[in-house]
Design goal:
Elements (H helix, E strand, L loop, with lengths): L2 H4 L17 H21 L8 E7 L8 E7 L37 H21 L10 H28 L1 H13 L21 H23 L4 H39 L7 H5 L6 H17 L7 H8 L21 E8 L2 E8 L4 H26 L24 E2 L5 E2 L1 H11 L3 H10 L30 E2 L3
Antiparallel strand pairs: 1-2, 1-7, 3-4, 5-6
Helix pairs in contact: 2-4, 2-5, 3-4, 3-5, 4-5, 4-7, 6-7, 6-9, 6-11, 7-11
The structure holds benzoyl coenzyme A (BYC).
């Protein structure tokens, strides 16, 4: 393997392993974009704490055996850089009409618009999530959690850089314009919102943050995996490295929810509560009751399902045929990688009933990726339910049916219960607050969001983690707060 690509050049203003120093035009474009990025970070990045020293990891190499270093750094001084996974020698396009041809090192003219659209959509989600999470530092349940939030935030910033590099290097003037637009749109803005639904929602509290990093970052994982298969090699290499960082974000979500569930179960046990659905009694203990956790889960899971687009999609078919966006673990699938004659079962609304219908596999790619996603989601639920059953409670968190609470695809115009029973508007209106967080659920959670900034201390609604970041001890000062 080429060792130069493993190491990252940190002597330049923009750290990179793509030899930017000799790519004057792109370097100039990126240096031109940099001040706007820093302005955006100050305006829309974490609110407060910008002068605090945060114990962050920074990617120093793309070697999977050791790529990051931990150290105290002020967030605005974080070294955002361009990191691509090493080039695979003689890589070929692993699917679609160009199956088996050498991977492209330049953008193929005929697919330029399609590629640019996917890169822009991917890029748009990264700053969006930072904007959604910008107020959370102020209510962090511990310095450990605060540090994890900021780690996620700086890395989403880096993922924006990754997409902006592709736009500026491979798409000329319109790439530069798109790069500027990525700094102009704002999550939730009425005139200039972010592109995808879930990224315009609020992340009002830390339970939402954990749900978001569990469910929505996991959509990111699936989409990045699909793009990592791309015949456009620079995109593939960028996404492969992004996935390394992404893993930590989902860890934050999974362990965050585990710790909330753990704390709730511990508190219920200590108080001698046998019925976990006795919401008022559980809330009186100052912890989040399991039914409310289920509602938050319902919300974030379904918002994330919408991110996969329509179940049946010609966009998805075209991107696959073109060799631009593949399937999850494409190279490990045993088939023709062209989907010429195969079908895939899709849940559809047929004569007012939810039915499984075989569709051409090519147009059903979004559904397939979403199914892979759902399977991946289940793992966390097993873990959380284990905590609940170990505590002796007969209560199970569950993923709602895919027809429930949808804004995109087959079920966007109907209402269904979490079990997948179709219901009319009046029933929906009556039951909505039983299934999704209500205003009063939000107010209750908000009442618990009191910051805890003493070293080694945790808010009373969440358990401490089992291990520290970088194996640090429980009394480690993850953030040295400077106001
Ligand atoms: N909201 O054929 P359709 C991440 C639009 S997350 C609004 O159904 P397609 C991260 C669609 O654009 C991963 N609009 O779907 C996580 C199209 O509009 P146009 C981000 C939507 O195109 C946490 C029309 O509906 N990456 O990284 O097959 C923190 C018909 O489209 C939505 C990607 O998404 C929606 N939810 O699939 C930080 C990868 N869904 O063009 C980061 C790139 C659909 O006709 N994106 N529409 O006007 C894609 O692969 C696809 O564009 C999509 C949609 C999966 C998003």
């Amino acid at each position: 393997m080429n060792m130069n690509i493993m190491k990252v050049d940190y002597t330049t203003k923009i750290p990179n392993n793509v030899n930017l120093a000799e790519d004057r035009q792109v370097l100039k474009a990126l240096e031109g974009w940099h001040p706007g990025y820093i302005d955006w970070w100050h305006d829309m990045g974490p609110d407060g704490f910008q002068q605090s020293m945060v114990y962050l990891r920074t990617a120093y190499s793309v070697d999977p055996r050791g790529w990051a270093k931990f150290d105290y750094v002020k967030m605005p001084d974080y070294r955002w850089g361009i990191l691509l996974a090493p080039e695979e020698e003689n890589r070929t396009i692993p699917f679609g009409e160009h199956y088996g041809e050498p991977a492209w090192q330049e953008v193929p003219g005929e697919y330029r618009a399609m590629l640019r659209r996917l890169i822009v959509i991917q890029g748009d989600t990264e700053p969006a999530s930072v904007e959604q999470q910008r107020h959370l530092g102020k209510t962090a349940p511990s310095l450990y959690d605060m540090r994890n939030l900021f780690q996620v935030n700086v890395e989403e910033g880096r993922h924006l850089w990754a997409m902006v590099y592709l736009l500026q290097k491979y798409f000329g003037r319109d790439g530069r314009e798109e790069a500027d637009e990525l700094l102009r749109r704002r999550s939730g803005d009425a005139d200039s919102p972010r592109m995808l639904g879930a990224f315009n929602e609020k992340t009002p509290d830390w339970l939402s943050f954990f749900m978001f990093t569990y469910f929505t970052d996991r959509d990111g994982k699936m989409q990045l995996h699909s793009l990592a298969q791309s015949g456009f090699d620079p995109l593939s290499r960028t996404c492969r490295f992004m996935l390394t960082e992404e893993a930590h974000h989902m860890f934050v979500g999974e362990t965050g929810i585990t710790r909330v569930v753990q704390r709730t179960c511990d508190a219920m046990r200590a108080a001698g509560i046998d019925d976990p659905t006795d919401v008022a009694k559980v809330r009186a203990l100052g912890v989040i009751d399991l039914p409310t956790i289920q509602k938050k889960l319902n919300l974030h899971y379904t918002l994330s399902l919408d991110l996969f687009g329509s179940e049946v999609s010609t966009n998805a078919a075209n991107a696959f045929n073109a060799g631009i966006k593949g399937r999850y673990h494409e190279t490990q699938i045993q088939d023709d990688h062209q989907l010429k004659n195969s079908t895939y079962p899709v849940l559809k609304l047929v004569d007012g009933e939810i039915k499984r219908v075989d569709e051409p596999a090519l147009t059903a790619l979004n559904m397939r990726l979403r199914d892979d996603y759902t399977q991946d989601c289940v793992k966390g639920l097993l873990r959380w339910n284990k905590v609940i059953s170990t505590a002796g409670y007969d209560y199970k968190l569950a993923l709602p049916h895919t027809a429930f609470h949808r804004a995109i695809g087959e079920f966007k115009d109907v209402h269904a219960s979490p079990e997948g029973v179709l219901i009319d508007d009046a029933t929906w209106a009556k039951r909505r607050d039983d299934w999704l967080p209500s205003k009063s659920d939000g107010d209750f959670i908000a009442s618990l969001m009191n910051p805890v900034t003493e070293i080694g201390e945790f808010a009373p609604w969440i358990s401490p983690p089992k291990v520290g970041i970088d194996n640090k001890p429980g009394d480690f000062e993850y953030v040295k707060i400077e106001t």
